[in-house]
Design a protein that fits this description.
alpha+beta, about 20% helix, nine-stranded antiparallel β-sheet
């Protein structure tokens, strides 16, 4: 995965960044029945799952575990990350308010959709223990994976990333974001990636802005001005208390459903973000933004 990303970034520096026209929409929607978060259209209803989902529930109820003094007003300075932080605050401000709320929030969902092997569906609650979430997502343990600290600007200190290669819909990469709880970290967010194609959900609500960031979890931004990033959101706060944000390159036609666009670079990030984490990120990001 990393090598492909490096090649894309190298291409940004050396190639004209004119966006290419959209390819015709496929005859069969590649996201049909993927989940209510992705295939629901305005005025429509998602398809019912074929069987009951595997449900991964929250752990001890003690709340999210973050680094000591994560909420101190002496948060890290913005440094050279001001564009990412400004994008993050702009994106999330419509869906939450800043707050140092570390409570358990058992009502909040992180993800609802297919298992990664396509055998069924699953639902992951906010603060589900990582191992329980992996069993529900993969139907079988995918093997040991080392976590790395989340260093994306604007995120509260004490989050970690676990990366997996997958084949699910058009996605080839999954990142599970957890807190610092021991002995079992707890899941707070998921992000799916397609590292080779740009897919736009034109039935999501567009958030208009000259965006710099196309991957907030891994802190990736465009290499130079003039590259077009579209950001769209599916607001599922009622009743599931989460949103889905999609970031992709290029300019799609204004048609319903998922549209693939040929552009340079090509990449899609689809981020599942529960309400409690939105408030925590806004709290940290606005502190950093004020520095």
């Amino acid at each position: 995965m990393i090598s492909r990303r490096h090649l894309v970034l190298a291409a940004i520096c050396s190639t004209s960044m004119a966006q290419q026209p959209a390819t015709p929409a496929p005859k069969k929607d590649p996201f049909a029945n993927f989940s209510s978060a992705l295939d629901k259209r305005p005025g429509g209803t998602p398809s019912a799952p074929a069987s009951a989902p595997a449900v991964a529930t929250a752990g001890s109820g003690a709340g999210i575990s973050l680094a000591p003094h994560w909420d101190a007003l002496t948060a890290q300075s913005r440094g050279g990350q001001s564009g990412k932080i400004d994008d993050l605050v702009f994106l999330l401000s419509a869906y939450g308010t800043p707050g140092a709320d570390t409570a358990a929030h058992p009502e909040a969902t992180v993800y609802e959709g297919p298992q990664m092997d396509g055998t069924g569906t699953c639902k992951i609650a906010y603060l589900t223990p990582l191992e329980e979430a992996k069993k529900a997502l993969f139907n079988r343990a995918p093997g040991p994976v080392s976590g790395s600290k989340a260093v994306a600007p604007g995120f509260p200190d004490g989050l970690f990333l676990y990366q997996f290669d997958i084949k699910c819909g058009v996605y080839n990469r999954l990142t599970i974001v957890t807190d610092s709880a021991k002995p079992q970290p707890q899941v707070v967010s998921l992000q799916f990636k397609n590292e080779r194609q740009s897919w736009h959900p034109t039935h999501f609500k567009e958030v208009a802005r000259d965006w710099h960031t196309y991957d907030y979890v891994n802190a990736r931004n465009r290499g130079q001005p003039g590259i077009v990033i579209h950001t769209r959101v599916n607001d599922l706060r009622k009743p599931s208390h989460y949103i889905v944000a999609n970031m992709a390159f290029g300019i799609p036609p204004q048609t319903g459903g998922w549209v693939q666009v040929n552009s340079r670079p090509n990449e899609t990030s689809t981020w599942f973000l529960p309400e409690p984490l939105i408030g925590l990120i806004l709290f940290s990001a606005t502190n950093q933004q004020a520095k």
